[in-house]
Write a structure and sequence with these properties.
The complex is a heterodimer. In chain A, 45% of the residues lie in helices and 7% in strands. Chain A contains eleven helices and seven strands. Chain A has helices spanning 3-15, 25-39, 57-68, 73-84, 93-96, 120-130, 143-153, 168-182, 192-198, 232-242, 253-265; strands at residues 109-111, 116-118, 203-204, 207-208, 221-223, 228-230, 275-277. A three-stranded mixed beta sheet of chain A has the order 6-5-7. Chain B has a domain at 25-94. Chain B is elongated. Classes of the chains: A mainly alpha, B mainly alpha. At the A-B interface, helix 2, helix 8 and helix 9 of A face helix 4 of B.
Chain lengths: 278, 105
């Protein structure tokens, strides 16, 4: 055995990682994408942002009809008013986000100063609090209006999550989100990946399971079942509950890191929010 | 004769929906089971492994105990404790990250 290999092996043991478990985020992403392109070889990559309608032709017909009069449109209009209306102190969201409103592709990102993943809803609430406004609730309600407007204004931008190499905490957050995604949870003992990676395309009760690739491009989403627009973390909550696991706090560390990993997997895909789903 | 009376009493009890307290079941034992369930739930939560309905079952057990339905309270507490243990073990079994085999490439 050469010295180099010995040192590498010793290092792997010291760090406690089995050989082969050290895939980089980029290696993960390529593997993830290849999995779907193998499984649905007839589906072009740019279709994945359309969720289940990339793989379910019957559902797709209904969806295309719905998209002619998009149910999320009123939310975009209300969100525009929110964006433009000054806070009590006279400032607006634009003072916090000078590049706004089309900023969805800049999130989630690693915030080095805070040492955490920054999500768009969290950044919006930070802006509100810095301007002495009450924070918005993260799952239901007005935050969805604001996010609908921002998503609409961000259409055509491309998902581009970065895990900076100069801060090991960023990689740790990514790895944490990845582990969450592949961990079995709840009484039903399912991981996210069991439904959306292994079984994408299968029908669960009345719903076809969407492939995970592209899962983050179109939020917030109007769901007919909800009768309104809801956030990504509301969706995470629902999916955790489906397997009878206790959901986590919206924009708490677990879901933030999950969003970081999951969005990274869709790097290169176009943003197309807000979306509409059954 | 005596057996029959017991059965009638039981049936009547069921019909009335009354608590079926067995001789050994007292409120102290039920209270201990509820505490054990709460500890198990917290242990699962400490590794992010709490299940959806465990806390609900514990709450319901407390309510049943307060209303005197000892057997029902005991059942709920026992199930909740088991859920807490399973949720904890579920997470501990997955401490080491492993990529699932269904991702092939």
């Amino acid at each position: 055995m050469s010295k180099k290999i010995l040192i590498a092996a010793a290092l792997a043991v010291a760090v406690g990682l089995p050989a082969g478990a050290m895939a980089t985020p980029e290696e993960d992403r390529i593997q993830f994408r290849n999995h779907f392109q193998d499984r649905f070889s007839e589906v072009p990559l740019e279709e994945y942002p359309n969720g289940v309608y990339a793989i379910d032709p019957v559902g797709r017909e209904n969806w295309e009809a719905i998209e002619e009069f998009p149910p999320y449109e009123p939310f975009i209009d209300t969100g525009r008013d929110m964006w433009e209306k000054p806070f009590a102190n006279g400032k607006t969201y634009a003072d916090c986000f000078p590049d706004g409103p089309g900023i969805a592709h800049k999130y989630p990102h690693w915030d080095k100063d805070k040492g955490m993943v920054m999500t768009l809803p969290l950044a919006l609430n930070n802006c509100r609090e810095a301007n002495s406004e009450e924070p918005l609730k993260y799952k239901k309600g007005p935050i969805n209006d604001l996010l609908s407007y921002i998503a609409f204004e961000s259409r055509g931008e491309v998902t581009n999550v970065v895990v900076p190499e100069d801060d090991p905490r960023a990689l740790a957050a990514y790895e944490d989100g990845k582990k969450f995604y592949y961990t079995r949870r709840g009484q039903l003992n399912f991981s996210c990946a069991h439904c959306h990676v292994q079984n994408g395309g299968l029908v669960l009760r009345t719903e076809t399971l969407s492939p995970s690739l592209g899962h983050t491009t179109h939020f917030p989403v109007y769901r007919s079942k909800w009768g309104t627009v809801g956030t990504l973390h509301r969706r995470f909550t629902g999916c955790n509950k489906q397997v009878r696991a206790k959901p986590f706090e919206a924009h708490g560390e677990e879901y933030r890191n999950l969003e970081y990993f999951l969005t990274y997997m869709s790097n290169g895909l176009e943003l197309n929010g807000p979306g509409a789903r059954k | 004769m005596r057996n029959k009376t017991v059965i009638y009493a039981l049936l009547l009890g069921l019909a009335l929906g009354a608590p079926l307290a067995s001789a050994s079941l007292d409120a102290t034992a039920v209270q201990a089971a509820i505490s054990a369930a709460e500890d198990a739930r917290k242990q699962a939560a400490s590794v992010n492994g709490e299940w959806r309905d465990t806390a609900k079952k514990i709450k319901e057990a407390k309510k049943m105990l307060a209303e005197g339905y000892l057997a029902k309270a005991m059942d709920l507490a026992t199930v909740a404790e088991r859920e807490g243990e399973l949720g904890y073990r579920q997470m501990m079994a997955q401490q080491e990250f492993e990529m699932p085999a269904f991702i092939k490439h």
